Amino acid sequence: MTQRLDLRLREVFYAIRSQVHIDVGSDHGNLIRELLFAKRIDRGIAIENKWRPFENSKANLLGCNAEVRFGEGLGCTSPNEADSVSICGMGGKNIVKILEDHPQNVPETLVIQPNKMIERVREWALNNNYFLRNETIVAGPRNYTVLSFTKSPFAKSSSTKSPSESDPAYDGIDKQSAVLFGPHLLKGKSPVLLQQLLLERTYFERLPFRSPHATWRLEKIRQTLREVWQYD
Questions:
Q1: CA dist 14 → 20, 41, 48, 180 (Å)
Q2: Where are the alpha helices (DSSP H) in 63-174?
Q3: Closest CA to 53 of 66, 71, 76
Q4: Mean per-residue pLDDT pooled into runs of 10, the chain (232 residues)
């Protein structure tokens, strides 16, 4: 099982269990295929905006209870059509754009794997009533973070936005640091995140010149290392 998936997508695979699942940017459709074979989903919808991956997904998912659609993000889906969606292998800025372009089509459960600017996704979730239920880091030559969100119970029953502070994942922790580095990872004192922050700290400290943003990020890393791991 999951033999077609790399370590990154295996983590995404284990975060998904629903009736109808959408995978945006399906590439070869392997994630949908493995989810169906494992009976973690009943039906899959693979979405691609490039012809070659679209054709690859169609061939790979032939005979499966899945549909392959050609389109941009969630624009080729409908409200309440699916229970969950995965968006993987893109930058956080592009992922947020996909979610914001068609907010009425965003399902209640999201599994997101951003390649960079992860904080943009966490900020979007805070501003749109999605609770961060879990986050994990897949360690390797390049680390990948997998985020799992569900729509807040308040948002499901009300048209009024609940305050961003309502997500319990951020309780009892510096919110700015948590948005940057992950509240669950910080509370769990993730050893992979620790090594990542130590390497990033060393990189910034060795820069002959630091931009204001780099200086600010370095200070946040130092603060987080002190407060969470008691590193000076």
A1: 15, 11, 22, 24
A2: 92-101, 118-127, 153-157
A3: 71
A4: 81 97 93 96 96 92 96 95 96 97 97 97 96 95 95 67 70 95 98 96 96 96 96 82
